[in-house]
């Protein structure tokens, strides 16, 4: 292969935290990857997970080998790819996104001539409409609206996010405000490992005299957190707490990756990264 042909080799790495649930992997991650393949037929599309635990579990249990973000880029470099774009399927720019961003920065700034061009696209929620950037929150809310049940004053939807100690946890508070601004007064957001808490939401549901609650994961995949923390039978699950508080509870057990409007957002973020460097990122 001559150099001219090598330069034309372009790839997209679709990075997610990952899941050990095979059906969920197919419905929520593979479906997004396939959407990206259809939108970018001239690019090789590869999968990478950031969770070493999930990668190890899949290898030991199923004999399935999945690259982490480092291995995926090293493999593309070894295979002579010159132009690489990374699309994270993360919801917010938190710890897992930072892990990818840090490694991409090493390639963009330090590993000379590894790639002619390397760019990192943004996760689902990043820009808030400031400085001529799109409002990722408003766009995500419009996509979410396609899976919400019909509005009813006696009913509410409670979205479960992941959350954590990272400052990006503030995205869930922003999402709540943006939902209210968009007219979704009976849609509430809580997180498993951060703020807002479920107890705060339960108080608000009581104030509004809500009778029925639909629990819905605001996560890429309906995996461990959705199965146990949200819909589990244990006393501490969101479902159990809501039932104990006197609400009728329905569960919408699908990850955001199944929502075609959400898939389209990731495609759009990738298009933006390919056409110009995303806000806050440097080109190679």
From TrEMBL:
Record's keyword terms, sorted: Lyase
Record's signal peptide: none
InterPro entries named in the record: Anaerobic_Co-chelatase, Sirohydro_Cobaltochel/CbiX
Pfam families xrefs: CbiK
Enzyme class, first EC level, given as a word: lyase
GO molecular function: sirohydrochlorin cobaltochelatase activity
EC number: 4.99.1.3
Protein name listed in UniProt: Sirohydrochlorin cobaltochelatase
Taxonomic source organism: Sporomusa silvacetica DSM 10669
Source lineage: Bacteria, Bacillati, Bacillota, Negativicutes, Selenomonadales
């Amino acid at each position: 292969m001559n150099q001219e042909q090598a330069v034309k080799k372009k790839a997209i790495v679709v990075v997610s935290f990952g899941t050990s649930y095979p059906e969920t992997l197919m419905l929520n991650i593979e479906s997004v990857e396939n959407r990206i393949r259809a939108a970018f037929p001239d690019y090789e599309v590869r999968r990478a997970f950031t969770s070493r635990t999930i990668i190890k579990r899949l290898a030991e249990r199923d004999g399935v080998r999945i690259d982490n973000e480092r291995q995926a880029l090293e493999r593309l470099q070894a295979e002579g790819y010159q132009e690489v774009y990374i699309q994270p399927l993360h919801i917010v720019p938190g710890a897992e996104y930072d892990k990818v961003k840090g490694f991409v920065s090493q390639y963009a700034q330090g590993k000379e001539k590894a790639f002619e061009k390397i760019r990192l696209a943004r996760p689902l929620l990043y820009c808030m409409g400031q400085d001529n950037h799109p409002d990722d929150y408003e766009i995500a809310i419009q996509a979410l609206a396609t899976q919400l049940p019909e509005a009813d004053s006696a009913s509410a939807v409670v979205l479960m996010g992941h959350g954590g100690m990272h400052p990006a946890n503030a995205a869930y508070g922003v999402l709540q405000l943006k939902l209210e601004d968009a007219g979704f007064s009976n849609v509430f957001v809580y997180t498993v490992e951060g703020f807002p808490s479920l107890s705060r939401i339960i108080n608000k549901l009581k104030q509004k005299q809500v009778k029925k609650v639909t629990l819905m994961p605001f996560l890429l995949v309906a995996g461990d957190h959705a199965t146990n923390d949200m819909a589990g039978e244990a006393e501490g699950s969101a479902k159990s707490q809501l039932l104990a508080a006197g609400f009728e509870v329905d569960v919408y057990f699908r990850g955001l990756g199944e929502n075609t409007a959400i898939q389209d957002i990731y495609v759009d973020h990738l298009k933006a990264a390919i056409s110009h460097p995303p806000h806050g990122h440097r080109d190679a």
